[in-house]
Amino acid sequence: MQALALLPIAGIALLIAAMRLRTHHAATVPAGARCKTGWARAYLAYLALAAVWCLTGLYTGTAGVMVLYVVTCLVCGVASMWRWDVARRAAGHTRHPGLVSVLRDLVAVATATGLSFLALELPWNDALATINPTGAALELGMIGLFLLSLYFVGQRRGIGVAVGSFALAVVGVTQSFVLEFKGGAIMPSDLLALGTAAAVSGNFSYYLGTGTFLGLAAQAVATCLLSFVVPPHVAEGEANPEGGHAAQGTPWSRSRRGRALLACANVAVALACLWGAHWVAMGTSYYWTYGIGIDFFEAINTYREQGFLTGFMAARQDMPIRVPQDYTPEAAQATEDQLAQAWSATERATGDARRYAMAQSQFSSVQPTVICVMNETFSDLSRIGNLGSYYTGPTYFNSIDDALFQGDLDVSVRGGGTCNTEFEFLTGVPIAYVGPSKYPYTLYDLEGTPTLASQFKALGYSTTAIHPNKASNWDRDEVYPAFGFDRFLSIKDFRGAQELHSGVTDAATYQKIMELLEQDDGPQFIFDVTMQNHSPYDQDNIPEDLLTHYDPSGFTSEQNAQLNEYLSCIQASDADLHAFMDQLRELDRPVVLVFFGDHQPSVSVDYNDGLFPGEDELTHTLRTYKTDYFVWANYEVTADAQQSDEVETSPAYLGSMALKAIGAPLSGYQQASLGARLSMPAVSLMGFKDAEGSWHQASEGAPATDTYDRLAMVTYKEFGSRVSR
Predict the structure, then answer these.
(1) pLDDT digits (tens, 9 = 90+) for 349-386
(2) Which SS3 state, helix, strand or coil, does residue 26 take?
(3) Separation between Cα atoms, residue 573 and residue 533, nearest integer Å
(4) What distances in angstroms separate CA 70 from CA 10, 90, 251, one per listed residue?
(5) H/E stretch holding 591
(6) DSSP code at position 500
(7) Alpha-carbon distance 45 to 50, whole Å?
(8) 386-391: long-range contacts (C-beta < 8 A, 24 or more apart)?
């Protein structure tokens, strides 16, 4: 594709030549010479963008689209150089220049609205032809009112509208990148996590394809049209050879007071347009009024079907944590007590109460160090059907046979959103009750939120969090102290550490844990969030001796290359885990290890879709929202306290289950969670699993729905009410 760079480069040369000719032609009008080519310079930037992307090999579209884009930029650039002549003639050849200009401007802004809609959607929306008319109308309404407000606030000039239109095109391009990197949509909460996005953005390759340049071509046409939007008195003044604005124009425009009043009126209309845009966006419930709600499984599907802005605003309307029906603090406390009592009653009926008492006694005397490792993107993709015939999973992980318990972990994120799995594990709060596409780390004041860290700290443990990246990622530098961590070891504590793929190796973080154990022989709670396996998986930076070479049929070479890059990272993680656990086995001190993956990589979606077509949505989606975990100890935990070998669960339950297994004290909320788990063994944004092993969406009215609702009330008391004050 590098050869295609000749097209935009030639376009730049031709446009510069046209600009020089135009400037020479206008040399007799010194005051206007510079401005006659001002708008055309924007098209030099359009063409330069195309040249850079072609030269770097990041353009993935067709030659035909590039030709169309370059020709469009050339035509628009040349046309924009005649804007003053057209505006002058329009102002000088009509008895009502003000009325004519308003009608012309409204047509220009309306056309720019449609073109901006295309610029926003074309870069990423491959289902634009089938978009819901209601969703499209809402989006066009928001865009139109937004651009109209810029028109009036800019005193009826086109420059502000053009900037707003270009900003929408940038949003469309950004969404295309997010779709490529995460397989998802930009959500309102993402705007509060820009620091994290910036921290990892340097590792990605920013490809632009056919849709992107079609969208930019549409925006280029919009900019050209808007270059002709000039108030009549300005057009007349600019046409004056002396350069004076007050020499001609209407009496109203020549009056200083009149111009001031006109400016105020324009600002007032702009504010009214902004209010209208806000009302379209937030003034009415999209779900109840138009039947438009966010697809909890695949938010990007809602965006495709309804339009980017409509989908974004539908998500924004769902940001607050919903208060459960019939909620009162008293009712929630009673429900929490009932769920805790149900757990206690079951414990007594099965004899587990006596065994848990024995485990508690052991825990009090042993006080084991508890190490929790949330391993970046760790998941056994052999669960994806026929992929298993090529790949059998992480070898050492699947060979562990002395865990207290282990199994599938039903998570609520995929391809990203690490902090939400982390939040669920540390707080015990299911994200299902916080709401989809929300990141509590960036949304709420979490000071005083009960967590595993604060719980162990109250028991006299020292508490340390580890993440070998920027401390500000997901606001961890603020969240961890609020959660009760004494120390936070971030990237600055890993200078010179060995790296692989996307950062510091798992082994380096495990070595840091061993150093912490050597430095302090007291009980510790350590939480380690690893980094090496982070996306993207097209970096082509895996050493050959570590690179896997699986080649599932039916997939492109690019897909298989990304799969192998990911599996190579998991293989390295598996080896590092093996070495780490061997070290823990040799320690002469009691240690508990809780190990789990935060989410699957987005690459798993391609294989799931290719190998399991035609499934029902819930079954199909759940397969890519599962990771793996185990809870293990290097000492003999009271045997009767051990759980069954294979236990499917969720991150919000995992902490309580681990504490029970080792005999650690349980809070009332944790006991209530274990009580809820009796009839609802797993819960995530996808839905919940009932005691018979079937999954349901939360709205289906399945047998566990009562438990789902009761746990929602308890969770709101413990978390939602705290952060909604």
Answers:
(1) 988 888 888 889 999 999 999 999 999 999 999 988 77
(2) coil
(3) 8
(4) 9, 29, 44
(5) strand 591-597
(6) E
(7) 9
(8) 386/552, 386/611, 387/552, 387/607, 387/611, 390/550, 390/551, 390/552, 391/548, 391/550, 391/567
